[in-house]
């Protein structure tokens, strides 16, 4: 009886609607907010990382040597 019940269930899938406002492009590099294939991407990436990581240390050094 259990097998006949499972056979009657209507499993189906529908095609994704590309006109939906909630459907975005799929595939590699489509889920990131920047394009890593540009010419100077790695230069911009590393300068952003160095500035972001080094800024707290630079601020700490500046605050240490600042005159009161």
Automatic annotation (TrEMBL):
<dbReference type="InterPro" id="IPR036636">
    <property type="entry name" value="COX7C/Cox8_sf"/>
</dbReference>
<dbReference type="GO" id="GO:0006123">
    <property type="term" value="P:mitochondrial electron transport, cytochrome c to oxygen"/>
</dbReference>
<comment type="subunit">
    <text>Component of the cytochrome c oxidase (complex IV, CIV), a multisubunit enzyme composed of a catalytic core of 3 subunits and several supernumerary subunits. The complex exists as a monomer or a dimer and forms supercomplexes (SCs) in the inner mitochondrial membrane with ubiquinol-cytochrome c oxidoreductase (cytochrome b-c1 complex, complex III, CIII).</text>
</comment>
<comment type="pathway">
    <text>Energy metabolism; oxidative phosphorylation.</text>
</comment>
<keyword id="KW-0809">Transit peptide</keyword>
<dbReference type="Pfam" id="PF02935">
    <property type="entry name" value="COX7C"/>
</dbReference>
<keyword id="KW-0999">Mitochondrion inner membrane</keyword>
<keyword id="KW-1133">Transmembrane helix</keyword>
<keyword id="KW-0472">Membrane</keyword>
<dbReference type="GO" id="GO:0045277">
    <property type="term" value="C:respiratory chain complex IV"/>
</dbReference>
<comment type="similarity">
    <text>Belongs to the cytochrome c oxidase VIIc family.</text>
</comment>
<comment type="function">
    <text>Component of the cytochrome c oxidase, the last enzyme in the mitochondrial electron transport chain which drives oxidative phosphorylation. The respiratory chain contains 3 multisubunit complexes succinate dehydrogenase (complex II, CII), ubiquinol-cytochrome c oxidoreductase (cytochrome b-c1 complex, complex III, CIII) and cytochrome c oxidase (complex IV, CIV), that cooperate to transfer electrons derived from NADH and succinate to molecular oxygen, creating an electrochemical gradient over the inner membrane that drives transmembrane transport and the ATP synthase.</text>
</comment>
<feature type="transmembrane region" description="Helical">
    <location>
        <begin position="45"/>
        <end position="65"/>
    </location>
</feature>
<dbReference type="InterPro" id="IPR004202">
    <property type="entry name" value="COX7C/Cox8"/>
</dbReference>
<dbReference type="GO" id="GO:0005743">
    <property type="term" value="C:mitochondrial inner membrane"/>
</dbReference>
<keyword id="KW-0812">Transmembrane</keyword>
<protein>
    <recommendedName>
        <fullName>Cytochrome c oxidase subunit 8, mitochondrial</fullName>
    </recommendedName>
</protein>
<keyword id="KW-0496">Mitochondrion</keyword>
